[in-house]
Write a structure and sequence with these properties.
The complex is a heterodimer of chains A (300) and B (331). Chain A has 300 residues and is of the alpha/beta class. Chain A contains nine helices and 14 strands. Chain A has two domains: 114 residues, 3-Layer(aba) Sandwich (Glutaconate Coenzyme A-transferase); 138 residues, Glutaconate Coenzyme A-transferase (3-Layer(aba) Sandwich), CATH 3.40.1080.10. In chain A, the strands form four sheets. Chain A has an eight-stranded mixed sheet, with helices on both faces. In chain A, helix 3 links the parallel strand 1 and strand 2. In chain A, helix 2 packs across helix 3 and helix 3 packs across helix 9. Among the domains of chain B are: 187 residues, Glutaconate Coenzyme A-transferase (3-Layer(aba) Sandwich), CATH 3.40.1080; 39 residues, no CATH class. Chain B is 31% helix and 19% strand. In chain B, strands 1, 2, 3, 5, 7, 11, 12, 13, 14 and 15 form a ten-stranded mixed sheet that branches. A three-stranded antiparallel sheet of chain B has the order 8-10-9, covered by helices on one side. Chain B has a two-stranded parallel ribbon with strand order 4-6. Classes of the chains: A alpha/beta (300), B alpha/beta (331). The interface between A and B is large, with 73 and 70 residues.
């Protein structure tokens, strides 16, 4: 059995694959260069190369401008929301799947149920209240979801890889609350660390969390718009709502639309006015590194 | 007689009701599992990331229960251990993963390769499971929710169906909605911070779906960090999440939720969660672990002792006391 966990510091790794690295991996190691090292950064914190986690967190945080309630899991969505609280959306509140609202954690939480989220929180709800009143009642502006696969309508698979649900080649964790987040949030943001044709697929192996178009095909109208933003290591895909496909609307500096289309398993549409994403600024990186995640629990 | 009855002077103090005898439902873990968990039973084990009744799961393994149907929203390490212990033939769940820390080796072998034997699996979403408990607790025939429209899950789970609302929808049109069936486990087991000897169970922090799961069940076992005096419970009755009449056994089992946590008692053992992917990946290593930590220990006290005080010191938490509220009293 492993050494004791500590609530105040990142844990000693017990396996290289899951260990937070002491030194951040550079974006160039697992993604495109962002030009951040020779960008407008001036602060000392920003001289280090930008990691893919930092890049995705910063880009996601900017998308939260004007939003009030965010349903988020731990990891990049937490970082993005915490950064947004310090920048574009000071009033934004995270609702955690564990039932915590208005958390004021003393340390960066390691899970959605970390004890530090509960101590000092404004409210802790039961599961019927969280899923029934808060989510299904329509109180969430933005839900963050991840998935193993996404298709052009923003339908998500988090259940199985393979042809058969009952004998899959890989059994994934399954729906959890993702179906509820998808059906009931006003809109859904998806963060994908790796933009590949296997994950951005023409046909899902299994549709766990359906977007509104699939629901409407069954004659049932869901509350929300489904996935409206997909933030990846290559750029941003977006759709406004029912009847719209995800389109490429922005790329990171140095990434071409053709690169993104080649990394997408369907015939990806590209917006006429394709934007270039501004690299993380010195101020955003400083806040992320010094205030949001100084222990580099997630910024690996 | 009422307050307006002229025979009772307004100033007379109301007679104190006769004290009701308090049942003592405290049992050892061994006796509680022996009495309330039988081969072939449907057993709900709840606790949403917090207060997971791991020690009860271990005792079920020690006593060699077979052919259980386990009902649990987040089927995590304790379920993987019960699978490795050969106790489970069917799983009803909405999340089959080791938190966000990795995989459940035994569960994946059972589902992906039917090794060492197939596992019957009935899958819902989290709120689908919550609604099954809500329907079960209220003895309703089904419970509606807006989750499944367009999902492939309904095509692999016959329990997920639709009904047409008898009332027109917001647009005046006929409205169809998905429903899930009630679940009424033979027994529900939950873990809590404290209870009195009768089973009035107090939980703070994440309260999850414990009350619904207990009320849905025919029998309920509550495992607690400590059994407290009646007066402690009665000093703060709103803290009672499960009343005594819904509880059949109270088991004192300190640190019985490890590797999950008990708010205010000990922290989550995150390192253990991360190590489970490695332990459970190799069936031989997993069986060695089960032999050493579950089958090789007489009870949970031995498991706790084997972890060692140094380990527990690393999971210790400091105080963060709530301010008392004033319930008031009649003068």
């Amino acid at each position: 059995m492993n050494a004791a966990a500590s609530a105040t510091a990142p844990h000693a790794p017990d396996g290289a694959s899951t260990a937070p690295a002491d030194a951040p991996a550079t974006v160039s190691a697992d993604g495109p260069a962002t030009g951040s090292t020779d960008g407008p950064a001036t602060g000392s914190a920003s001289r280090e190369p930008v990691t893919s986690s930092e890049l995705l967190s910063v880009v996601a945080s900017r998308e939260l401008a004007g939003r009030r309630t965010v349903f988020a899991g731990i990891g990049l969505p937490t970082l993005a929301t915490a950064l947004a609280q310090l920048t574009v959306a000071p009033e934004v509140e995270i609702v955690y799947e564990s039932g915590v609202c208005g958390a004021h954690p003393s340390h960066l939480p390691e899970t959605i149920a970390d004890a530090v989220l509960i101590t000092g929180a404004e409210a802790v709800l039961s599961m019927p209240a969280l899923f029934g009143y808060v989510l299904q009642g329509g109180h969430i502006d933005v839900g963050f979801l991840g998935a193993a696969q996404i298709d052009k309508w923003g339908n998500l698979n988090s259940s199985v890889i393979g042809d058969r649900w009952d004998r899959p080649s890989v059994r994934l964790p399954g729906p959890g609350g993702a179906m509820e987040v998808m059906a009931n949030s006003r809109e859904v943001f998806v963060v994908m660390r790796r933009h590949t044709p296997r994950s951005f697929t023409a046909e899902l192996d299994f549709c766990t969390s359906p977007g509104p178009d699939r629901a409407l095909a069954e004659g049932i109208r869901p509350l929300g718009a489904g996935v409206t933003r997909v933030i990846t290591d290559l750029g941003i895909l977006a759709r406004a709502g029912v009847g719209e496909e995800l389109r490429l609307v922005a790329t990171h500096p140095g990434v071409t639309a053709e690169q993104v289309r080649a990394a997408t398993g369907w015939d990806l549409q590209v917006a006429d006015a394709l934007a270039t994403i501004e690299p993380p600024t010195a101020s955003e990186l400083r806040l992320l590194r010094e205030d949001v995640d100084p222990g580099r629990v997630y910024l690996r | 007689m009422g307050p307006d009855d002229p025979a009772v002077p307004a100033t007379a103090p109301a007679p104190a009701p006769a004290a009701r005898p308090v049942a003592d439902k405290t049992m050892t873990m061994r006796d509680a599992i022996a009495a309330f968990v039988h081969d072939g039973d449907t057993v709900a084990i709840e606790g949403f990331t917090h207060l997971i009744p791991t020690a009860a799961g271990h005792e079920i393994v020690r006593q060699g229960r077979r052919n259980l149907t386990v009902v649990r929203m987040t089927a995590d390490i304790v379920v993987d251990q019960m699978l490795a212990g050969g106790c489970v033939s069917k799983l009803v769940s909405s999340f089959v993963g080791n938190s966000s820390a990795g995989s459940l080796g035994e569960l994946r072998r059972r589902i992906e390769h039917a090794l060492p034997e197939p596992l019957e699996f009935e899958e819902y979403s989290h709120y689908g499971m919550v609604c099954r408990y809500l329907a079960g607790a209220q003895r309703l025939p089904f419970y509606p929710l807006r989750s499944y429209a367009g999902s492939d899950l309904a095509s692999v789970n016959d329990g997920i169906r639709t009904v047409t609302s008898p009332y027109p929808g917001p647009d005046g049109q006929e409205e169809r909605i998905h429903v899930v069936p009630p679940v009424n486990p033979d027994v529900t087991i939950v873990h809590a911070q404290r209870a009195d000897r009768a089973g009035n169970t107090q939980i703070w922090g994440l309260t999850g779906v414990q009350a619904e799961a207990v009320f849905a069940a025919r029998r309920a076992v509550v495992v607690v960090e400590e059994v407290v005096d009646d007066e402690v419970v009665r000093s703060d009755p709103n803290r009672t999440v499960i009343p005594a009449h819904a509880v059949d056994a109270v088991v004192a089992c300190p640190r019985g939720a490890h590797p999950s946590f008990a708010q205010g008692y000990y922290d989550r053992d995150n390192a253990f969660y991360r190590s489970w992917s490695h332990i459970s990946k190799d069936p031989e290593r997993l069986q060695e672990w089960m032999q050493r930590w579950v089958l090789g220990t007489r009870d949970h006290a031995e498991y706790v002792a084997m972890l060692g005080e140094e380990h527990w010191a690393g999971l210790a938490v400091g105080d963060a006391l709530s301010l008392p509220v004033n319930y008031g009293r009649r003068l």
